[in-house]
Design goal:
Chain lengths: 205, 244
């Protein structure tokens, strides 16, 4: 059975990959396989949400720490899901749930994130004192000063700010491209390992 | 055609080097973060504490799926190595397909170690479907489940700062890498030994996932040198005014 699973997965992967290079011959088959993948991914969301609810229920049943929050989550999930199915996602009350609960909560987490990042940067030198840490902090501070809004415009004036931003951008842009090339190569090789069946994160292998 | 050529070259190199590496295992350069990871796995088994493995939000229908696959390959080995522990590792994901595959991978690891009866489906969890809901779900795991080490490998964004902060508050080890530049900046500022760029994809090789992972590192090195060469040649041709 595992061999059959692997054969199907590898064949589907190879067809989708080659479909990009030979769109006339394999394009329609690639699109069909991707459509199937989208449908399966949609079903996977339902399975995932069931898993989320089951884990929270288990925490509540076992009396684990945070179990009460878990049961609240499950109740809120069932109510929202029920109303969503009956009223539809475009209904004004469903939209209100989104705009009055989820958006403000995520916005407050974003605000906490800003403080957390600042705090992490301050503690960097306590954690690791080396040249790169100092460079990281100095560049971060210079960049923050450059983009800081003031009633009089940029703190260094328009021209000097632009020159400094271009200078910093030269290094950060080059570094970012280098990192992204490395990540792209890593992704390519990881994908190839799956296509060759060396990694099989499916079918219990 | 250039992309197809690169793909064929990478495939040939990967296959060839995998067979070679099966005969002569590679000696890998020291990466402190992976040393710490191996130590943390051993300590978690001895202490009866848990590992929390965060696989991020990598969706397999996008290019971010690569980092998720790299995380799963590492998870497979870690599950096998920690199967003898009283407290199994907990895996959180921010994508439903990834959560299902993490359960499958955990089960496979336990089966390979001959301890399939130890597997619990609740150890592979979907923590949330949006970046911040995922962070909230994973935060509860970090705070409440007697975690001794947090391993974050995959597609994580700036929200990872919240996870890193929680890890720091609980005084746990942190091994973190992401394919996202903002998350890499966070990890650089917040972890003891940061993993940069493609080091994320080296996790499998450093936890002993097999010859193909070691071969991947060599192929990445070869391709990187080819890209550097192409950039230098391209620059020179541009300087001399050759039509490119």
């Amino acid at each position: 059975m595992r061999v059959v699973t692997a054969a199907f997965a590898i064949a589907a992967g190879v067809i989708v990959l080659l479909g990009y290079f030979f769109p006339d011959q394999l394009g329609p088959l690639r699109v069909m396989l991707l459509d199937w993948a989208v449908i399966i991914a949609g079903m996977a969301v339902l399975v995932g949400i069931y898993n989320l609810a089951a884990v929270q229920m288990e925490k509540f049943r076992a009396g684990q720490k945070g179990g009460t929050y878990g049961i609240l989550l499950v109740i809120a999930l069932l109510i929202t899901f029920g109303f969503g199915v009956v009223l539809g996602p475009e209904n004004q009350y469903m939209q209100l749930t989104m705009n009055a609960v989820i958006v403000p909560v995520e916005a407050s987490l974003m605000a906490i994130l800003a403080v957390t990042l600042l705090y992490a940067s301050i503690r960097l030198l306590r954690r690791r004192v080396d040249v790169m840490s100092v460079v990281f902090l100095v560049v971060a501070v210079i960049f923050l000063i450059l983009v800081m809004p003031t009633p009089f415009g940029p703190i260094l004036g328009d021209g000097a700010t632009q020159v400094a931003m271009n200078f910093l951008g030269m290094f950060s842009g080059g570094g970012a491209r280098g990192l992204l090339i490395g990540i792209a190569l890593g992704t390519l090789l990881t994908g190839l390992r799956v296509l060759f069946g060396a990694d099989r994160p499916y079918g219990g292998n | 055609m250039l992309a197809l050529g690169l793909l064929i070259l990478a495939s040939i190199l990967l296959l060839g080097l995998t067979f070679w590496r099966r005969r002569a295992p590679a000696s890998l350069r020291l990466i402190e973060a992976y040393e710490r990871l191996n130590r943390s796995v051993g300590l978690a088994v001895e202490n009866g504490t848990r590992l929390h493995i965060s696989l991020g939000r990598g969706n397999f229908l996008t290019s971010r799926g690569g980092s998720a696959l790299a995380g799963l390959a590492m998870l497979r080995r870690l599950a096998e190595r920690t199967s003898v522990s009283d407290r199994p590792p907990v895996v959180t994901s921010g994508d439903a397909s990834l959560a299902i595959l993490s359960q499958d991978t955990l089960q496979a690891g336990y089966r390979a170690a001959g301890a399939e009866d130890q597997y619990r489906f609740s150890t592979g969890r979907l923590a949330g479907l949006t970046p911040f809901s995922y962070a909230s779900g994973a935060l509860a795991t970090i705070h409440d489940e007697n975690i001794s080490a947090n391993i974050m490998m995959g597609d994580l964004g700036a929200e990872s700062a919240l996870l890193v902060e929680a890890s720091d508050r609980e005084d746990t080890s942190l091994i973190a890498a992401s394919d996202d530049l903002s998350a890499q900046a966070v990890f650089f500022a917040a972890s003891q030994e940061p993993l940069i760029g493609e080091e994320l994809f080296a996790a499998g090789a450093y936890v002993g996932a097999g010859a193909s992972h070691e071969a991947s590192l060599h192929v990445q090195d070869i391709l990187r040198w080819l890209i550097i060469l192409a950039m230098l040649v391209g620059s020179l041709l541009k300087i001399v005014g050759a039509p490119i």
